[in-house]
Design goal:
This protein is mostly helical. The protein has helices at 14-25, 29-51, 54-70, 81-100, 119-137, 141-152, 157-164, 168-195. It is elongated. The protein starts with 13 loop residues before the first helix and ends with a helix.
C-alpha cells in the first residue's frame, strides 16, 4: 500500500463499519480491503506523527492492518472501527519509539535542491521548524499526541479520548496545558520576530 500523501481526515459512515467487519468474519476478505481503504490515509497521518519517518510510518500502518485483521474477532461491531484500529496503531507506534530510542534526523524534502526559495528564507524556515520541534519535544508524550491529533489532524476531543483510551475531560485539560506550555516555550521566538 502507498501512503505517500496523507491528507486530513475523511468522513466515513461509521455504522457500516460493523457491517463490513461482520462480512470479513464471514470470510469475505474484500470487505477488509474496503475498511483499509477507508482508514489508510488517516492511519498513515497518525503513524507519521508518531514516528516522523515515511517508511517507518508505512510499515507500521501495514503491520497494524494485519494485526487488526488477526484480532477482528475481538472488535465490538456496535462501536466505530476507526478508534479501535487507531488505538492499536498508537500503542504499537509508542512501543516502537520506546524500543528504538535513537537519534532522529530531519529528512530533506525532494524540492529542497530545486532552489525554489532563497537560502536565507530556507534557513529561517529550517530554524523555525527546529524551534517548533524542540518546543514539541518539551511536552510530555501525552501532551504532544493530544495536541497533534486535535490541532493538526483535526480529531475531536471525543475521538482523541477514545484513541488514547483516556477520558474526554483529560483530553481537554491536557490540550489546555500543552497549548499553555507551547506559548511559554515559543514566547522568545515571538519577541525576536517583533524586534526584527
Amino acid at each position: 500500500m502507498e501512503w505517500a500523501r496523507a491528507g486530513r481526515r475523511t468522513t466515513t459512515d461509521p455504522s457500516s463499519d460493523g457491517q463490513l467487519v461482520d462480512r470479513v468474519l464471514q470470510g469475505e476478505i474484500a470487505a477488509f480491503d474496503e475498511l483499509a481503504l477507508r482508514y489508510e490515509r488517516r492511519a498513515y497521518a497518525l503513524a507519521y506523527r508518531l514516528l516522523r519517518h515515511r517508511e517507518d510510518a508505512e510499515d507500521l500502518v501495514q503491520e497494524c492492518f494485519m494485526t487488526a485483521l488477526d484480532k477482528l474477532d475481538t472488535f465490538q461491531t456496535s462501536r466505530q472501527f476507526g478508534p479501535w484500529f487507531f488505538r492499536i496503531l498508537i500503542n504499537r507506534g509508542l512501543n516502537q519509539i520506546a524500543s528504538r530510542r535513537r537519534r532522529e534526523t530531519d529528512v530533506l524534502s525532494e524540492d529542497t535542491a530545486g532552489g525554489g526559495e532563497s537560502p536565507e528564507r530556507a534557513a529561517e524556515r529550517a530554524e523555525l521548524r527546529v524551534r517548533v520541534a524542540e518546543a514539541l519535544a518539551g511536552l510530555s508524550e501525552r501532551q504532544r499526541l493530544v495536541l497533534q491529533f486535535h490541532e493538526l489532524d483535526g480529531y475531536s476531543s471525543a475521538e482523541v479520548a477514545e484513541m488514547l483510551d483516556i477520558a474526554q475531560p483529560t483530553v481537554r485539560w491536557t490540550l489546555h496545558i500543552a497549548r499553555k506550555r507551547l506559548r511559554e516555550i515559543l514566547a522568545p521566538l515571538r519577541e525576536e520576530d517583533g524586534n526584527g
